[in-house]
Write a structure and sequence with these properties.
Belongs to the major facilitator superfamily. Sugar transporter (TC 2.A.1.1) family. This protein has 26 helices and 2 strands. With 598 residues, the protein is mainly α. It has a two-stranded antiparallel sheet. The longest helix has 55 residues. The protein folds into 4 domains: 132 residues, no CATH class; 171 residues, Growth Hormone, Chain: A (Up-down Bundle), CATH 1.20.1250; 200 residues, Growth Hormone, Chain: A (Up-down Bundle); 43 residues, no CATH class.
């Protein structure tokens, strides 16, 4: 007999009619949230879901009696995730494990999944350390390469190229290789190959004696680890890169210390290579290859019980079928990106990545030691200040774990962009102080406050946003464009900063990036839609609002903030965002500004 859900009164959607035999499945009284949030399994009764789970097993060669039972129960649990207490057939252990996922999320994570998270965090170390060890290493290798004359435009161009070449390679090659490599080698194979190339390239950088060889070694594609690891892990490894620079500064040989700094980044890459195949392969990769039994075995390693593994695999398969139907009817994806208004509005996403880099954070990450030394700081002081900045960049990212969903992506950007503007403006004019001690203190305070403000806002938001805004049928192309934009403008900033500082001085350069934070504020206000807690169906409504109408909302919101915050008018009416976005005939719950009663 199929598993059932004990009834508490009113029937859920899809319940059998009154003439159904008593042996049929009865449903819980509440209208399930799954139906509201677009669960593709919502609307099916428990008996139907149980039969679908059995059909899935027979279709994919899953014959073990215990596994079939897991899929029957898992399918019902996928359709009614909050009814774990009332689904008949679950053991006490299975019921407890399902409950912990809702009430005690951290305790519900099995050891193997923690190991996967650890390895993915090491992947971030490969990129984060590589980005920041060059910060201190360039202080020494520019002498070895003969590009240390700060008054020569040629030397400034070459220094920018040595730092920016990896990001240009990523924009033109790396991000476009990620999808085919994942398809051919799987997630583990792709990470292994990427880290192996990275280790070889980093070692090559450390052994070069000419800037041309250095550029060739540094120009290797980087895998997009950030899609598999948190922003917090990435910035934590940035901090490690700064620490490595400071540690190897004590080496007496000037020609050796920069080689040790650059060569140290091979260590995390080789560790990942050693650990990559100890992780389970992505179940989604196996499913795309039609290897559902392997996908189930992989999922079992990352869940507490077989029922939970079957539930997630069955649900993922349902989503893949929806995706396949959409992609199959999508036609020309590139044309669809620009012809469909909903997609055109989502295509504004690359501008968020541009503003993320134009905010100036990567200039500090790549050139802080060089900037401080140029302004009269000692080398040890410059490296120590850079390490402190990297530490605060990491600590500041921790609150984003909680705030990005609590306050929303749009609101975080609107709050942090003006604060980042103020911090960089303070830093830019701090270079005018004649006293060396006062200058060091003020510049340090300005850059440190900038790191604290940037980390929970403009740092993680664009990456979270990019994973949400595109519909399934054009998501891969949209994400590739967003990723290429990220890397390209990373290259532009890394390449142009030495020339910019030469032309504008440090004060002018920091003022330039401060101004871009104001531009980012207004672009966010007028064009960035809120995506917090929205489903794919709801996001269609959010992004289908014409740009002209959303621009009007931005103007109204600016007026509201002016009256509420500057004129202290607590009765100022909130802009009518609810009337802008409608999904399934019902206004959305999200209002991106506080109530006038707040």
């Amino acid at each position: 007999m199929a598993p059932s859900v004990r009834s508490g009164g009113r029937e859920a959607p899809g319940h059998p009619s009154s003439h159904t035999p008593r042996s049929s499945v009865r449903m819980s009284c509440r209208c399930r949230p799954a139906a509201r949030v677009g669960n593709p399994l919502a609307g099916f009764d428990a008996e139907k879901l149980s039969n679908m789970g059995y059909t899935y097993c027979t279709s994919h060669g899953i014959t073990d009696e215990e596994d079939v039972r897991a899929f029957r129960l898992g399918a019902v649990l996928a359709g009614y995730p909050e009814d774990y207490q009332t689904i008949e057939g679950l053991t006490d252990i299975e019921r407890e494990s399902a409950g912990k996922e809702i009430t005690q999320k951290w305790k519900s994570i099995p050891t193997k999944l923690w190991f996967v998270v650890f390895v993915c965090s090491l992947c971030a170390a490969v990129q984060g350390m590589d980005e920041t060890t060059v910060n201190g290493a360039q202080v020494f290798y520019k002498e070895a390469f003969g590009i240390a004359n700060k008054d020569k435009l040629r030397d400034a161009l070459i220094l920018g190229l040595t730092n920016g070449a990896p990001y240009l390679c990523c924009a033109l090659l790396g991000c476009w290789l990620t999808a085919p490599l994942n398809n051919w080698f799987g997630r583990r194979g792709t990470i292994f190959l990427s880290c192996l190339i990275s280790a070889a390239a980093c070692m090559g950088q450390a052994l070069t004696n000419d800037w041309r060889d250095h550029v060739c070694c540094s120009s290797r594609p980087r895998s997009r680890y950030r899609s598999q690891v948190s922003y917090d892990a990435h910035v934590r490894r940035r901090m490690v890169g700064f620490a490595v620079d400071l540690a190897f500064y004590q080496v007496a040989d000037e020609n050796l210390k920069w080689r040790l700094m650059l060569g140290s980044t091979t260590v995390p890459a080789l560790i990942v290579c050693a650990l990559a195949f100890l992780c389970p392969e992505s179940p989604r990769h196996y499913m795309r290859k039609g290897k559902h039994m392997k996908a189930y075995q992989s999922m079992c390693k990352m869940r507490m019980t077989k029922v939970q593994a079957a539930r997630d695999l069955f649900y993922a398969n349902a989503l893949l079928e929806v995706e396949a139907r959409k992609v199959g009817n999508s036609g020309n994806k590139l044309a669809k990106l620009f012809k469909v208004r909903r997609n055109r509005n989502a295509m504004m996403l690359p501008s968020r990545h541009v503003m993320q880099h134009s905010a100036g954070v990567n200039i500090i990450a790549y050139y802080s030691a060089e900037i401080f030394i140029h302004e009269g700081f000692s080398v040890p002081t410059s490296l120590a200040v850079s390490l402190g900045w990297g530490t605060l960049n990491w600590l500041g990212a921790i609150p984003a774990i909680f705030t990005i969903d609590k306050f929303g992506r749009r609101r975080l950007l609107l709050i942090t962009f003006p604060m980042m503007f103020a911090c960089l403006l303070w830093t830019s004019f701090s270079f005018y102080f004649p006293s060396r001690e006062v200058k060091i203190a003020c510049v340090t305070i300005g850059t440190y406050l900038f790191a604290i403000v940037y980390s929970p806002g403009a740092g993680p938001v664009p990456f979270t946003y990019s994973a949400e805004v595109y519909p399934l049928d054009v998501r891969s192309l949209g994400m590739s464009i967003a990723t290429a934009t990220t890397w390209f403008f990373n290259f532009v900033l890394a390449f142009t900063f030495p020339m910019l500082r030469k032309a504008f001085t440090s004060t002018g350069a920091f003022s330039w990036y401060a101004a871009w934070n104001l531009v980012g504020f207004f672009l966010t206000l007028f064009f960035v839609r809120e995506t917090k807690e929205k489903t794919l169906e709801e996001l269609d409504g959010v992004f289908d609002v014409p740009v002209k109408e959303f621009f009007k909302f931005g103007v109204a919101e600016l007026s509201y903030f002016g009256r509420r915050c500057l004129l202290m008018n607590v009765d100022a009416p909130t802009p009518p965002y609810r009337q802008l976005v409608v999904s399934d005939g019902q206004p959305m719950d999200e209002v991106p500004v506080p109530s006038s009663k707040a």
